[in-house]
Amino acid sequence: MKRILKSGPVKAAALLCMGMLAMSGCQEPPTPAGLLQEVSENMASVGSYAANMLVEMEVTGEIMEGQTSTIGVNVDMDIESTKEPSAVYMGGSVGISMVGVNLSVDIENYTIKENDGYVSYTNVNEQWVKESVESENTGAGITAFKDLAGDEGAFLLSEDKSVVNDQKCYELKGTFDADKLLDILNSAGNAADRVGGMTGEVEFGEAKIPVRICIYEKTRLPALMEIDLTKTMQAYIAGVTDEASLDDLKLIITYHSFNDVEEIIIPSQAKKAVEETRSNELGVSDLERILGGGTWPETEGSEEGAQTEKEWGGQSSIETAPPPTEGRTGWQTYEVSFNGRRMELPFKVSELEAMGYTYGDYMDSEYVINKGQYEYGFMLEPGGTELSVFFLNRTDGPLALKDCEIGGLQTNNWSGEPGGVKIVFPQGIKLGSGLDEVLEAYGNPQDVYDYEEDSWISLYYYSDSDNYMNSVDITVDRETQKVIGLNISKLDQAF
């Protein structure tokens, strides 16, 4: 027997159901484009934000002749940005790991509007520098989300929500045009923009970059953006060189809070910084050249391909000389003394240990160096001052670092006063010696770096222009004509 329901209860039930659905927020499910559009609109009304930018990069290649290693770079920056007044603060560290050595430099940066332009105050190792910024790039307004929203079908909405800062988030995964990456980096502020500079003059073409975007469920504001540049840059590097390979390159921006940042105030010591046309004496462009990212300045009239001081070191009054023959004179005695204790390179690592030198937190004494190889590293004198050294293995088998020899060392006073150990190079040359003393003891160098815009002059002595395994480098302060850096190595028995 069929049961017949009266229309009244049915209608009531239907209305009740519809009401419950409406009250529960029943609506069309969000779409990637819709979410990105909401983020863009919501960010337009944001007056400030706090975020973190993390860059992780690993490169494998030849760090010095015959030596292959993986170099890791880690940039970890906290960011605070305000729209009115337009300003941004970034603070964190840049770390490099290589052959068992971990180094880190703390960095602070303030970018603010001053008069009709923008200026940047940067603090590295307690040294403040002020420089002009060409464009308004403080990162107060993120507009790239709007551009991404217009790329229909580029992203998929994950079924499961992710969690960022203990808050539920929508998660979008997909790819976008590489050119739009530059917009994102530009809108994220100076730090991310400089990370974008890692790509150099790369022509991305129609390359697609994998990206993951998390959006806070409640506020529809950005929570996280992860950009994976690995494959795109791998393809580029493979087409340029076979001596290095990129293992990983990722950029992650995490947004912590919005409209909570108070006025960004420039520290008084930063305001006192002297504005310079160069960011510092050893500026970004110089570091890029040292690391192979650029070319040394050319002097008008230099012959292409000629490896002389006039090509890469400017016009110098210091004359050069051909490499000397092997002998036991001048710098070629390879004798170095530590507080009067004289030793000849190469000598056992244990000799330094006997004088109180330790490995500190950077080095692992059990780190293995293969036969016929050498590695760059550090040891700490009793007072804690770092001594840069080359660990050398001249045996027929692998050796722990502590069982190797010291094949070279470097000392300088760029970071402050020298430590308690007095290090003297061949013929009595030491930090503070005069340029005239160097020329008298070692003769004319084989190469000179003497570029008038820099505050130092470098003299290079070597016995073989093909490998520079046996050499001495002297850095002299241009104004005082005193030695501020010394480097000696005897590594010809490696390999």
Estimated radius of gyration: 30 Å
Binned strand content:
35-45%
Largest sheet: 12 strands, antiparallel
Uncertain segments are 1-25, 137-143, 189-197, 274-313
Number of domains: 2
Shape-level CATH architecture of the largest domain: Clam
CATH class of the largest domain: Mainly Beta
SS-based class: alpha+beta
Helix content: 10-25%
Mean of residue pLDDT? Answer: 77
Report the total helices: 11
The CATH topology of the largest domain comes to outer membrane lipoprotein receptor (LolB), chain A
Termini separation: 98 Å
Basic shape:
elongated
> Could you tell me the number of beta strands?
25
Task: Please explain how this structure is put together.
The protein is of the alpha+beta class and 495 residues long. The protein has 2 domains: 243 residues, outer membrane lipoprotein receptor (LolB), chain A, CATH 2.50.20.20; 179 residues, no CATH class. Helix content is 19%, strand content 38%. The strands form 4 sheets. Strands 1, 2, 3, 4, 5, 6, 7, 8, 9, 10, 11 and 12 form a 12-stranded antiparallel sheet that branches. α4 packs antiparallel against α5. It is elongated.
What is this structure's SSE topology?
Blueprint: H1 7-23, H2 32-44, E1 48-64, E2 67-82, E3 87-98, E4 101-114, E5 117-124, E6 127-133, H3 144-149, E7 155-157, E8 162-164, E9 167-177, H4 178-187, H5 190-196, E10 208-216, E11 222-228, H6 230-240, E12 244-258, H7 268-271, H8 284-290, H9 309-312, E13 335-338, E14 341-344, E15 347-348, H10 349-354, E16 368-369, E17 374-380, E18 386-392, E19 399-400, E20 405-412, E21 423-424, H11 435-442, E22 447-449, E23 456-462, E24 470-477, E25 483-490
Antiparallel strand pairs: 1-2, 1-12, 2-3, 3-4, 4-5, 5-6, 7-9, 8-9, 9-10, 10-11, 11-12, 13-14, 13-21, 15-20, 16-19, 17-18, 18-20, 20-25, 22-23, 23-24, 24-25
Helix pairs in contact: 4-5
Region (Disordered): 291-330
Pfam families: DUF6612
Protein name: DUF4412 domain-containing protein
